[in-house]
Amino acid sequence: MLDVGTKAPDFSLPDQNRNPVSLGDLKGSKALVVFIPFPFTGTCEGELCMIRDNIGRLEELDAKVVVISCDTLPANRKWAEENGFGFPILSDFWPHGDVTRSFAAFNENVGAANRVTYVLDAEGVIHTAVATDSLGVAREFELYTEALASLDR
């Protein structure tokens, strides 16, 4: 994982609606950059449904959310539509995983992202990294809100 206190790598990727989203779009607000291994899987879906269902809490903490998957844009779009995800699901499909690699989140063994979330401050500096040791283990949502709230102290 990238070190806390370092600036997040710059990126620009298309969201599920083909709109470009960049690190610059997150500046001025706190942000969660959420890497997921695979859409349409129980653990990833559960994590993002938790974010969807608690988006108001994140907005109260002045946080934006972007999700990055190494899957295709059409798969991300279908998954977002089926689950009502109103936040950007970015496709890092081609060149495959380049942005995910720049965040030290790419899993070479499976060709997808590890389960890593970077909590960024309003300047795009990494404040906290939330990760699990296994692709099958979900991150705890409360760790996001705790990290975001600690930025105000």
Termini separation: 25 Å
SS element count, helices: 5
- Side-by-side strand order of the widest sheet: 5-4-3-8-9
Basic shape: globular
Helix-strand topology string = EEEHHEHEHEEEEH
Mean pLDDT: 97
Helix content: 25-40%
Total beta-strand segments: 9
- Main beta sheet: 5 strands, mixed
Beta-sheet strand percentage? 15-25%
Low-pLDDT sequence parts:
none
Secondary-structure-derived class: alpha/beta
Oligomer: single chain
- Radius of gyration, taken over Cα atoms and rounded to an integer in Å: 14 Å
Give the topology, please.
Layout (H helix, E strand, L loop, with lengths): L11 E3 L5 E3 L7 E6 L6 H12 L1 H6 L2 E7 L3 H11 L5 E3 L6 H5 L3 E2 L4 E2 L2 E5 L5 E6 L9 H10 L3
Parallel strand pairs: 3-4, 4-5
Antiparallel strand pairs: 1-2, 3-8, 6-7, 8-9
Provide a quick synopsis of the model.
The protein has 153 residues and is α/β, with parallel strands linked by helices. It is 29% helix and 24% strand.
Structure description:
- The protein is an alpha/beta fold and 153 residues long.
- The protein is 29% helix and 24% strand.
- The chain has 5 helices and 9 strands; from the N terminus they run E-E-E-H-H-E-H-E-H-E-E-E-E-H.
- A 5-stranded mixed sheet has the order 5-4-3-8-9. A two-stranded antiparallel ribbon has the order 1-2. A two-stranded antiparallel ribbon has the order 6-7.
- Strand 4, helix 3 (73-83) and strand 5 form a beta-alpha-beta unit.
